[in-house]
Design brief:
Length: 504
């Protein structure tokens, strides 16, 4: 009998020695994988804390790393805190000039852009284009205008400065994710070019369609059909310096037709053009057609000839307006699908709210003021843009965790939290943690960030018993990795799944 008791005690001792708490399990796991590829040769860091702020695990948490789209966490969080989740942006319609007794406006219609990034998009949250045009046309008719002896002017002056950030890569500027924009956009300044391979290798790539209609543009196509298996190597180059765009590169003969989502640098003119068409259909003719305002304040017509000087925005007689969705809904779309255009627009509004300017220098000042108000220092972050497209952004995992914890103490926390996707749902985390039970995936709210050689995840893991005091806040950032995204994702998933076991 004594021998049996001794064996039981010995087995219990062995089991106790081998068993690990979830916290110790994740610590050991991080220490182990840090010594192996793909993390061994990469620059990376992480930090995770419990609800009380106690560190669960960390590794090089003070290392400055490129956050990629994790930058959108800072942009949307700061804007929700500063502007409020219910904030809306207004696009107004107005006129300058005199209306005669027959209803002819001897002057111009102005579309006063209010920085609504959803304008003219097919986004489910956006005001429908037909409703927008119908509302503006009704406002024009209500003002007694039956015809316009002048222009319909797209006014994007709310956002001054350049469309894009100086630090964005040259080959990103031609695609929709690098479009940039002023205060009046259209369809997120996206230009869709549908292409198809030519009949034989060496033939020109076929251009099937281009939308939206931009008759002022001169398109050049220096692109050829390449041999089987070479893929899509097409790049679009354009600038707001001239209405010219060129598609270059090769497209494999075995590829199916594809829509290349390119950049439209003249969203303001596109919006004016669309309203002109709608007004003509409503029997309100416009003698001179659409126009835009360049950075020097000149009115430029569809031939890009200067035709006058624009009036100050506050001197235009406003006759109607349309409001954007609430900021909480724009932030949701920004973070769920990692929308660069929405993020940059939000950052510019933040700049205006503090300094009255949307210049990037002013946006940095504004964002730092918000962060300072949240009790966050400057040493763990360098801000270059709002979307994370710039490789000059730097954030430490420790700083990101501090920011996420600071957001928990604000009124904006709930809309901010629910702007983040969960693994398995529609959004950038759809294919993350697929092997985890749904109950675990639903507790995770995080933002991914990825570029060539970069993969990051930062966010929150709610507790299994839904106790806010047990929420885990984490940030994992990797840079300069030669591994594929799928390889690195698998490694980071292993960390996140083990963190989720800590507060299960």
């Amino acid at each position: 009998m004594k021998r049996s008791v001794t064996i039981i005690i010995l087995l219990a001792s062995i089991f106790a020695a081998g068993a690990q708490s979830p916290v110790q399990e994740v610590k050991n796991h991080v220490n182990d994988i840090a010594k192996k590829e793909p993390l061994k040769s990469a620059s990376w860091g992480m930090k995770a804390v419990d609800g009380a702020g106690n560190t669960i695990v960390e590794w090089s948490a003070a290392k400055r790393l490129v956050p990629a789209s994790n930058m959108k966490l800072v942009t949307t969080g700061a804007a929700l805190h500063r502007l409020g989740a219910s904030h809306k942006f207004e696009t107004r319609i107005g006129y300058a000039g005199d209306i005669d007794s027959t209803g002819v406006l001897h002057g111009d219609i102005y579309i006063l852009g209010g920085g609504d990034p959803t304008l003219g998009t097919t986004d489910s949250i956006a005001v429908r284009t037909q409703y927008l045009m119908r509302t503006f046309t009704a406002s024009i008719k209500k003002a007694g205008i039956t015809a316009v002896d002048g222009y319909v002017i797209g006014d994007g002056r709310l956002f001054s400065g350049l469309l894009e950030n100086f630090s964005w890569a040259y080959d990103d500027l031609g695609f929709a994710y690098g479009a940039g924009g002023n205060g009046l956009s259209w369809n997120a300044n996206e230009l869709d070019i549908t292409v198809a391979a030519g009949p034989a290798v060496g033939d020109s790539v076929r251009i099937v369609s281009i939308t939206p209609d931009t008759p002022w543009m001169t398109f050049r196509f220096d692109c050829t059909t390449a041999k089987k298996g070479t893929g899509d190597n097409l790049y679009y180059f354009t600038t707001d310096l001239a209405p010219v765009g060129e598609l270059r590169g090769t497209f494999a003969i075995d590829r199916k037709s594809k829509v290349e989502t390119c950049s439209n640098k003249f969203g303001d003119l596109t919006c004016a053009y669309e309203l002109c068409k709608y007004m003509e259909e409503a029997e309100i003719p416009v003698s001179e057609g659409p126009a835009r305002i360049d950075r020097s304040g000149r009115i430029v017509d569809i031939a890009f000839d200067p035709v006058g000087v624009a009036l100050p925005r506050d001197s235009v007689t406003v006759i109607g307006k349309v409001q954007s969705p609430e900021l909480r809904r724009i932030a949701f779309e920004t973070n769920h699908r990692s929308d660069n255009f929405y993020a940059e627009t939000i950052l510019k509004h933040l700049g205006i709210s503090y300094t009255g300017s949307a210049e990037y220098d002013s946006c940095y000042v504004a964002e730092r003021q918000v962060l300072s108000g949240l009790g966050l220092g400057k040493t763990g972050i360098r801000i270059e843009d709002g979307s994370g497209l710039s490789r000059k952004n730097y954030i430490t995992p420790a700083w990101m965790v501090a920011f996420l914890r600071a957001m928990q103490k604000t009124k904006a926390y709930e809309p901010f939290l629910h702007s983040l996707p969960s693994p398995g749902e529609n959004g950038t985390l759809k294919n993350v943690l697929q092997k985890e039970p749904e109950a675990v995936r639903k507790r995770i709210f995080a933002k991914s960030g990825s570029m060539n050689g970069i993969l990051c995840y930062s966010g929150y893991i709610l507790s299994g018993d839904k106790d806010p005091a047990k929420t885990i806040t984490f940030s994992i950032m990797t840079t300069n990795s030669m591994a594929t995204t799928s390889e690195m994702r698998k490694v980071l998933e292993g960390i996140i799944s083990r963190l989720a076991a800590v507060n299960a």
